[in-house]
Design a protein that fits this description.
- There is one protein chain.
- The chain is mainly beta and about 200 residues long.
- The protein folds into two domains: about 100 residues, RimM (Elongation Factor Tu (Ef-tu), domain 3, Beta Barrel), CATH 2.40.30.60; about 60 residues, SH3 type barrels.
- It is about 5% helix and about 45% strand.
- It has two helices and 14 strands, in the order E-E-E-E-E-E-E-H-E-H-E-E-E-E-E-E.
- The chain has a six-stranded antiparallel beta barrel with strand order 3-4-7-6-5-8.
- Strand 1 and strand 2 form a beta hairpin.
- The longest helix is centred in the middle third of the chain and has 5 residues.
- The protein is elongated, with a radius of gyration of 19 Å.
Length: about 200
């Protein structure tokens, strides 16, 4: 396999990661980067990759764009791109055949944070919300956001309480519930509507 072009990243053995759970699987995201896709399989014999898209930007996977592959952050260029059954089919530089593509199954695709699109007010990236601490408006800690459900109407934050990690608190991401998000502190303040917290 021809190795994808590597970009000097200034990484050392001390590279730091943010870890969260996605579909019961740990995901490690290098600090300063965000996940935009997950390689789920291959398509055909020429190294085309099936990618589960984790970006709202339709131009994210345009031909000629660059992505960073896996925790090693190897820089690759998108050579071909097309939609397919709710996913994207991509050919990446350095991935020349099905064997190369098979070896990348389960690998995340990243972009640097500075390449991310600007968001509207009160809109946040998934990686900013997952891992954030959650508290009530009177300061009572509820736990940490471990995942986000996308329901169509609104997102739902899944919070793991510190005293019962197997239990989940489901908080709809609506203005009546999410009062304040402090990204610098990694803290979300919420209003618990009746029925949201089972005692």
């Amino acid at each position: 396999m021809q190795q994808p072009e590597s970009k000097p990243t200034g990484r050392s053995s001390g590279q730091r990661f943010k870890t969260y759970t996605h579909r019961n699987r740990k995901v490690r995201i290098p600090l300063g980067y965000m996940a935009v896709g997950l390689i789920t399989g291959t398509h055909g014999l020429r190294g085309e990759l099936k990618v589960e898209v984790h970006s709202d930007n339709p131009a994210r996977f345009a031909v000629g764009n660059r992505l960073w592959l896996g925790e090693g952050l190897a820089e690759v260029e998108i050579l071909t791109s097309r939609p397919h059954k709710g996913q994207a089919l991509l050919t990446l530089s350095g991935v020349d055949d099905r064997a190369d593509a098979d070896a990348l199954r389960g690998t995340w695709l990243f972009i640097p944070n500075e390449d991310a699109a600007e968001l509207d007010e009160d809109t946040y990236y998934v990686h900013d919300i997952i891992g954030a601490a959650v508290q009530t408006q009177d300061g009572r800690p509820l736990g940490v956001v471990k995942d986000i459900l996308f329901t169509g109407a609104n997102e739902v934050y899944i919070v793991a309480p510190p005293d019962a990690p197997d239990r989940e608190i489901l908080l709809p991401a609506i203005a009546d519930v999410i009062l304040h998000v402090d990204l610098e502190q990694g803290l979300i303040t919420v209003n618990l509507l009746p029925g949201l917290l089972e005692e």
